[in-house]
Amino acid sequence: MPFLFLLLLALFLAPWLGLILLLPLVLLVLVMVPFGFALRSLFWLFAGPSRLLSVFSNGNVRRNHALEHATAHVLEESLGRPLPLSGYAVEEGFFVDGPFSPPMVLAAAREALARLQGGEVSLALHRRCGTTVIVVNLLASAAFLLLLGVTGRISFLSVVVALLVANGIGPLLSPFVQRHLTTDASVAGMEILGVEVRSGHSQALGVSFSFPSRLFVATRQAGQALTAQVVR
């Protein structure tokens, strides 16, 4: 903070001095950002496919993921606008985060399930799915490493090009990845057991943590044994 204050003061009182002080900072960014992006690319090159494969290999999660997306569509349709909602699917159902009451989410989930079972499979895909984030990061990493292999240099320009390519192609590729890898609209026989308000408290190493409560939509897959659930 003191350096930033001095830099701003120098830019205001003596622009030439401020530029001299700013130059090392710019050079540091131009050097450190590409190297940091290179490490990030190596991470996503392995983490991205691993995350996609973990969802693809679990049919229950894929079907709950499809129902989660369909529920989001129904909620947005009911209010006539995109909503600040998020969620994620697990084997037993899916979570919904947003300004919704349990009855609203339950009604939306039931309608979403009926529409999926009625053939509206497009509801299983959502433009703001987390799959898009994975695809964009994976493409950016692949593009950056490809440029590194071609040019033999780690440069700031390679970072910019990789990000432009990934953010241009990623959102277009995401629906394909969702359709074939991370969702499954084959929900015939699926049942919705209810909506549970999950506690916003957790404890680890003797320390209590608080976070906003979230709604959990419990489901049962076709042929799955009914287990005890606490639902509302």
From TrEMBL:
Pfam families: DUF6391. It comes from the Bacteria. The chain crosses the membrane at residues 129-148, 154-173. Keywords: Membrane, Transmembrane, Transmembrane helix. The keyword Membrane applies. This is Uncharacterized protein.
